[in-house]
Each structure stands twice: as structure tokens, then as C-alpha cells.
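quick one
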Amino acid sequence: MSGSIGARASRKGPRPKHVPLRTCVVCRDKDAKRQFVRIVRTPDEGVQIDPTGKRNGRGAYLCDKYICWERAVVGTALDRALKADIDADVRNVLSQYADEHFRKDDNVRS
Ligand SMILES: [Zn+2]
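structure w/ zinc ion:
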């Protein structure tokens, strides 16, 4: 693990660092910098919010806009992205998560 930093930088030519782009399943926004939250369909526990992004399963991303969460809760974007039926319990969890982490007002700013 040690000693490799710097060795790669001396390669010729600038190489753009590979940044994985997330795509919000509702607004289709792509951004590497903004905070995207992963929703995962686990084999055992159904659809869950995965803040660490590390759980196994089919994943979909929602961006940090409240409106997208709101739409995901009432609409079918997540169902389609995860190829799953999002049930009412999960929708409640999503709705709560949005309330706790995002503010409606943030969308009006700027
Ligand atoms: Zn979005």
C-alpha cells in the first residue's frame, strides 16, 4: 500500500481521474460532487436506503433535492430503477428520510 503515491503521477500525459457519476432516477441529473443517496434492493430485506453505498443488491440513486424524493415516494421511478414494487412502508421511510435530510426551501434558493 505504501510507496505507490507519486509513482503514478509521473506517467506521461494528464489523466482525468475517474469519478463515478451517479444519476438521479427522478430528475436524471448527473453530478459527481453533489450528494447522491443510494437506494438498494437487498435480497433479504427488501428496498432500503443505503447511506454508505456499500450494500449488496441492485442500486439506484436519488439526488439531494427534496422534490426528487417526493416524486420517488409518490411515483414509480424507483420501482422501475430497482425492478421492484416499493411498498407503503418503504415509501414512508423515504419520505421521512427526505424530511430529515433535505429541505423543501433549498430548492427555491439560488
Ligand atoms: Zn433528482
